[in-house]
Specification:
- The chain has 9 helices and 7 strands; from the N terminus they run αβββββββαααααααα.
- Among the domains are: about 110 residues; about 50 residues; about 35 residues.
- About 65% of the residues lie in helices and about 15% in strands.
- Helix 7 packs across helix 8.
- It is rod-shaped, with a radius of gyration of 65 Å.
Length: about 325
């Protein structure tokens, strides 16, 4: 009887021991997963919305789990303070000016806190810091954005359907292109004309190139103008002479205009003779008087020739003139 009691006690003790071992292994396993026994420091972040974040959720830095969420509590004014356990081995990599945001593992996975950013100049966290936060889109916000995009897509699809119906019905320019054969033929004719114009342009370009090559040919006028400095000097001299001649012609024209203006003016003798009728009549009368006086003088000289007092003088003069004439004739005849 005592042997059976001892055996039962041993079995019970064995099961209790095994249960305790399993319990201890479970505790250590869960503690290792939750980083409960790893050396850590605490940092805080204040969010206006944690989007379902819970105590015990993971904290990631650069895609690596570095801690867990220790506590979540209200901080007044609808703000929520989240305290995080951060492993000391990750402490040196997280900077004091780093930022934190609430994210999720995948699209609908568990919530977590993501720590990112920071500059080397800020130094590593030491514990007790309040990290800056960035508002992240919640699932509801993403669903609302997706719903808005769906509405926009429906509107675009509706518009495309309307456009396609108008194309099928031949409405508008594009519809007419699809259904109107005459318009198609007109466009085909226009395209043919454009091709012809393009060929003509190409031909014109080739001819211009040939003409340019001819201009560059040695011995041509264009080549001489470009390369022969003497031709350019002569042209410049000729242009200068033409300019001088033009200036002289302008001066001559100006002088003629001045003379013409003087002829039309009554302030000079010639203009007075041309424009003043009374002066012209006086000049005519003076000329008539001179002619009359000349005729009377001729008559007086003729009368003097027949006067006995001057008759010898005029005869002597006539003989001298006759003698001079005969000497001149004789000299002319002796010249071979």
């Amino acid at each position: 009887m005592s042997t059976e009691k001892n055996k039962r006690a041993v079995i019970v003790g064995l099961f209790v021991t095994i249960g305790l071992l399993i319990l201890l292994v479970g505790i250590f396993t869960l503690g290792g997963q939750q980083k409960a026994f790893a050396p850590s420091i605490n940092v805080q972040a204040v969010f206006d919305n944690v989007n379902g974040l819970q105590k015990g959720d993971n904290v990631w830095f650069s895609g690596v789990k570095v801690g867990i969420v220790k506590s979540i509590e209200f901080n007044g004014n609808s703000l929520i303070k989240v305290t995080m356990h951060i492993e000391r081995k990750a402490q040196e990599f997280i900077r004091k000016d780093a930022k934190a945001k609430v994210s999720a593992e995948g699209f609908i996975g568990n919530k977590l806190v993501v720590i990112y950013g920071g500059t080397p100049q800020a130094g590593a966290i030491e514990g007790g810091e309040h990290l800056q936060v960035e508002k992240s889109l919640s699932t509801e916000d993403m669903m609302a954005t997706l719903q808005k995009n769906n509405e926009n897509l429906v509107a675009i699809t509706t518009n495309f359907k309307t456009v396609s119906n108008r194309l099928v019905n031949g409405e508008g320019t594009a519809g007419a292109l699809l259904t109107d054969e005459s318009l198609y033929k007109s466009l085909a004719s226009t395209a043919s004309n454009l091709q012809l114009a393009a060929r003509n342009s190409q031909l014109l370009s080739s001819r211009i190139a040939e003409y340019t090559a001819q201009l560059q040919k040695p011995g041509s006028l264009a080549n001489g103008l470009v390369h022969d400095t003497m031709i350019m000097s002569n042209l410049q001299a000729a242009v200068k002479q033409i300019n001088d001649a033009a200036n002289a012609a302008n001066a001559f024209t100006a002088n003629l205009k001045t003379v013409s203006d003087n002829l039309h003016s009554s302030e000079n003798t010639l203009g007075l003779l041309l424009n003043d009728q009374k002066t012209a009549e006086n000049m005519k009368s003076i000329i008539e008087n001179l002619n009359s006086g000349s005729r009377k003088l001729d008559e007086d000289l003729e009368a003097l020739q027949h006067n006995f007092l001057f008759r010898g003088y005029f005869r002597k003069k006539a003989r001298q003139e006759e003698k001079a004439r005969k000497a001149a004739e004789k000299e002319t005849m002796t010249i071979p």
